[in-house]
User: Fold these one by one.
Assistant:
Number 1:
Amino acid sequence: MGFINCVNVSMVSNLINYPLILVNLKSYSETMGAKAEELAEITQKISSDTGIRIGLAPQFTDIQRLKRFEIPIFSQHIDGIFPGAHTGHILAEAVKSSGSVGTILNHSERRMLLSDIESALKRTKEVDLISVVCVNTTNVGMAVAAFDPDIIAIEPPELIGTGIAVSKAKPEIILESVEAIKRINKNVTVLCGAGITCGEDVFSAIKLGSSGVLVASGIVKASNWKNILQEFADAALKAKKDEGTE
Amino acid sequence: MGFINCVNVSMVSNLINYPLILVNLKSYSETMGAKAEELAEITQKISSDTGIRIGLAPQFTDIQRLKRFEIPIFSQHIDGIFPGAHTGHILAEAVKSSGSVGTILNHSERRMLLSDIESALKRTKEVDLISVVCVNTTNVGMAVAAFDPDIIAIEPPELIGTGIAVSKAKPEIILESVEAIKRINKNVTVLCGAGITCGEDVFSAIKLGSSGVLVASGIVKASNWKNILQEFADAALKAKKDEGTE
Amino acid sequence: MGFINCVNVSMVSNLINYPLILVNLKSYSETMGAKAEELAEITQKISSDTGIRIGLAPQFTDIQRLKRFEIPIFSQHIDGIFPGAHTGHILAEAVKSSGSVGTILNHSERRMLLSDIESALKRTKEVDLISVVCVNTTNVGMAVAAFDPDIIAIEPPELIGTGIAVSKAKPEIILESVEAIKRINKNVTVLCGAGITCGEDVFSAIKLGSSGVLVASGIVKASNWKNILQEFADAALKAKKDEGTE
Amino acid sequence: MGFINCVNVSMVSNLINYPLILVNLKSYSETMGAKAEELAEITQKISSDTGIRIGLAPQFTDIQRLKRFEIPIFSQHIDGIFPGAHTGHILAEAVKSSGSVGTILNHSERRMLLSDIESALKRTKEVDLISVVCVNTTNVGMAVAAFDPDIIAIEPPELIGTGIAVSKAKPEIILESVEAIKRINKNVTVLCGAGITCGEDVFSAIKLGSSGVLVASGIVKASNWKNILQEFADAALKAKKDEGTE
């Protein structure tokens, strides 16, 4: 018997399987433009070697550049709008046609109105984008589960960017939120994030019941992308294998 | 004696001269992705033939695709942030490195906090982006002039998308705002917009003292981009020549 | 057998029972200051005569004036903040100490961030305020139910202020949302609103399963407050009695 | 020769003269409800004894309670709306009829859209409210001056609540902003704020050219309101007298 959360799930054209490592490049200059391509190159190699799916969420303007890599690219946000007179907005069709397979929504640095989360999620379904909705608490996760997103990423905001892993500081929030979210909607996959900086954090996160991690500075600011991504992927692989052999 | 507003001004690497026609592609599907490239191709040809500068402001994800054209590309918005932990934001460095020469700010469909307009304008100066701040009234234009933007575009929101040209419906707002804005800051260039759909609208706008137009549906939704852009460019050229010969 | 939604429920110091008619005074001048007191006087009389609970949600500055009436007073909004350095915000303790027994949250004219709805609801529980969270769709209602509010008011925004009653135009949304919300959280009471202008609308709303109505212009803009409130209360009473005798 | 900024100016029904001490009660529990009345009582006494005008800006729900005192009461915010269907908004007419003589706008804890500042200021003029627009920098002050507010309060946000007085930490920002704002619009009165905690801070602020101070925690959190207000008023009086005798 194993973690049901780590079974590969055919979903949105098989672009994603679990455990998933999703790297949010935020507005970091370390991973902008040509440097985003460099990271994508490394990511593609390690993902191919280990079989662990690793996605990147670059800045909007860099989505186009990363299209050619065989890794899943996510947008950092979309607005719940339809094509039309919306200046400066992020259209679902635009991120899709630029090469994204999914989008983050409601990140703690880009909180959304409740009604906009609903409309943005409708747009992801219409254009076939994988949705990753960030939440700060189990209760918010339960609320979002009612909207039937693909993935909910639970990130205690007070740990973001600290290097103190959620899986170490608040293991109970992972256990509790996975259970509570699945109770509302068993089709939702749960990731966790905040403070993830090493393989051990990834391993514990998966062991605690999440289907992978959402990470940003832990990868972006690491001195050696190849080493840290390898460490993350190995840890995810180990957690996955544990499951298989049990 | 002529319109001082139409003299060519060397500015931000000579990328812009006046009169300027700036086309805001908003989130229209008619001008997304490959279709944005098609429009850029036509724009480049007409701009080259007439010598009238025509800029395009595509969706963020399309900036990269339009980089190769010899026309000025504008972002539809930037946030007043520095590189760092800002998920889903628009970074000045990112739009610049993707190929933009400037950015629209405070469009009526993307209104900004007063304090954010100031910080975003600081960022445009730091990374050498041409700033086009949209305002709804002469008073707001005067306020913005204190921030020393490159261009202020005055657009009465009630006329946007109506096909009723600001130069016809409210000629006095152009006269008045150009005068008032220049009184506060003579280095600011004034464009006008809202409801511009034909060459005559462009001609009147320039004759009334603006240095060009900000247009969206008037071009995007036109049945023939080549014809309408030619008509706009010819009208701008005529207005410019009138000035030269006076 | 009757409507379980209309049984009187002892709750938050017995201040509320059902069916409830909640009148949102918005920023209407017709019901501001002394005129709010006039409406409260009439409301108190009719409520006392019929036994039907009728609440008023005046502007923040008028809460104090309505304290003396024996009717439940609601705030139109609170922020999810604690006492402290928050200029221009609405503090739970402040509306409570001024005489409110509850507060509306997330009205379509004052939409809130998902995370702020959670924190504002926490504050209502801490200071013992009845919470009425407005939602635009059944799905949003289900999401909010996870936060365990006292009341959810479902209001299709496209009907607000139209005079076309939700109970006539979209009876299925009432049936469906009551059922769906109760499935997530059976302790939540459901009101409905939008377009309610006559006794018949109130009667149908309750018959369809809601525990009362949220109404604004239907009362505020009526030519005779006494008559319209009497009509609403009589209809609510009739719906309640129907239940008792079945 | 003296400070022209301290001359008494007849304005908005003589309710205000300068130097002005404006105390922002924010959402502090120390000055809520009955405690706001206690502070108003002390304020009224000291203001009457010294002749120095001291205003209070309580929470919206407390405006009504402070109406009876002979001191100027300010709202902490208004929205740029007209009476109508605006739930949870702050209407100019409502704060006026509750007893306010003016309102703060664009406080750093309640930043406003540029276009909303303009519309809110229009409303203050229509209902005859004194406007106090907060700004964070000299440039923002110059921008706001174009809207012709009554008072601009310059508050470097990084000093708010620190106890490090703007008049000590950044004297040049007071000198510079008073000069720059007056150059754009000589009718505007300039206050300064942030970190003001003692009489000396008040004295320096006025000596540097401001017409008074905007203060919050420096008064609210003081152990003895009577003593601290007396100290502030005495310092303002001394600064005013210095001017008269020079």
Number 2:
Amino acid sequence: MAVNGTAVRAVTEQLPVRGVGQASLLLGVDLGGSHISAALVDQAGRILQRRKAPTAVEAGPDGIIAGIVELLREVISVSGVTRRELAGIGLGIPGLIDSSRGLSIFSPNLFWHNVQVVRPIEREFNLPTFMDNDVRCATLAEAWYGAGRGVANLICLTIGTGIGSGLMIDGQLVRGATESAGEIGHMTIEKDGPRCNCGNHGCLEALAAGPAIARRAREAIEKGVETVMLAMVGGQPDRLDAAVVTQAARQGDPVAWEIIELAALYLGIGIANYINLVNPELVIIGGGVAQAGELLLAPMRRVVGQRAMKVQAATARVVPARLGEDAGVIGAAALVLERLGEAGPSAV
Amino acid sequence: MAVNGTAVRAVTEQLPVRGVGQASLLLGVDLGGSHISAALVDQAGRILQRRKAPTAVEAGPDGIIAGIVELLREVISVSGVTRRELAGIGLGIPGLIDSSRGLSIFSPNLFWHNVQVVRPIEREFNLPTFMDNDVRCATLAEAWYGAGRGVANLICLTIGTGIGSGLMIDGQLVRGATESAGEIGHMTIEKDGPRCNCGNHGCLEALAAGPAIARRAREAIEKGVETVMLAMVGGQPDRLDAAVVTQAARQGDPVAWEIIELAALYLGIGIANYINLVNPELVIIGGGVAQAGELLLAPMRRVVGQRAMKVQAATARVVPARLGEDAGVIGAAALVLERLGEAGPSAV
């Protein structure tokens, strides 16, 4: 994968071969549909300083990029870090990207099409700047500093409004031929299943992401099934979300419990299919829906054990993510090391 | 992945850094449940000499290994190649393997459990000897010398009695944490589908491999549906196989056609799921069932286009394999180069 040649050279010239010397700190940006996070991160993956602001989607690409610049300026200024201490900037961007050209090809949440993201930020700060998909950034963070430390072959799933994944093989992030690897959310699990936003039918995302969980709860209530969930949302079914269903299931509500079990079944099938193909040592489960914890993970593991081949199932532990919402911004910062050819935290 | 350290050292000491010098020829062995193939192969993937013999499964591991040794001796003797011209031996073994220990862990077709394969052959010929899974060998051959030349990210499927695959990412074969990557045959496509030999339900293999295709033809005949297939097998439905169904479909038999289309639907879903995860440039289709050619490939491509995400579908061409049954033995030979750190045919 090509990276910005000039920028890399500029930095590597001033650095020793296997370290970033004086320039040992990293800036990371996690751009989401609702918020932007920016942070100063050290090479052990610790956040030293951070700022967060709402994403001004209505301001368009220029406005959002100006917002990123402002947040980064604040982080730099508050932390008192100098340019010489900084190795570079990493950007985690949702949707389709072309990292060699620094472009966001398509980001439905931001309404972006072919937006140049890297160059304006690189120019502004005169620091090597890299980008990657937000889920891949989270995967890098969990692999280097979180639940995947020391593991060379792993999958990291984020289960929230959508379902995405990052894949690491032999210690290397897998990006794919056009940087689109990892789309487990659009794995067909039921060929005649519910229609997904992508146009396909029976995608994992349409069966097991947050909105599918909320939809099943609403449907149960509409059918008149008795459940504590209705009271939990003050009698307003449109306020139901995966968090409410999870909470109800924890309280022992059988309807909510069944909905979580069904999501776990679909997720378990998707994970079993995935580990049959890439045979990882670890499957890390993160994202909002994953906050259900063992409630979701225990039945998921059972399904993986039933559905995956013996060796693959025995090899792959299924564990919760460790870095929570920070994974995105830490991973974006870590991207600087990854793209400059650092081998990860062990090289520090 | 660890390789036999001593053997590698022995060879690399006598070789220039990026070539195998005088020792430029390779021996490959493709061990199958019915036949063993052995061949002398050059670094352009051409078979210079070959021998084939039935697999004496009843003779047990020692008998089969003795058979491999005999075939290799014949190939060496007939071709007049000297030991100094040989870089090493590669073995393609079906089932589960542990290449670092030279073991066949489990091979259902051979009735093998924990059989030491590499050491006796290495000792016999005093040549560096390597092993890999047979499907991965075929993938290496197609990637380096067949349909995948010049492509860094590809999947190679073999569709026959079973369905297996090999995966290459950024020019490297993916083996997985325990050398079990690539098991697309046991991807759950229908969670309540027919029972598979592996114990799971609705595996791709149980829905679309040769036996599933033959079974559907038999079921149609048992139901009394009119089809030319019955006459083609002389009125004996137990003689039906995927080749007969393919031939009947080519002749325009609508029952056979529908059966092939259904297999293509399941295979297309499996491939779409796979390319969503690893985003390859190429999907190579080989194996006995794939001899149906465009009859199978055309509807399969249509399904991939419908089911995979846009970018992944647009990036991955679906093409037939080029090396046919030779892929296994050529790939086993190529394994010697791969394991000695040669980069592939471009390095020759």
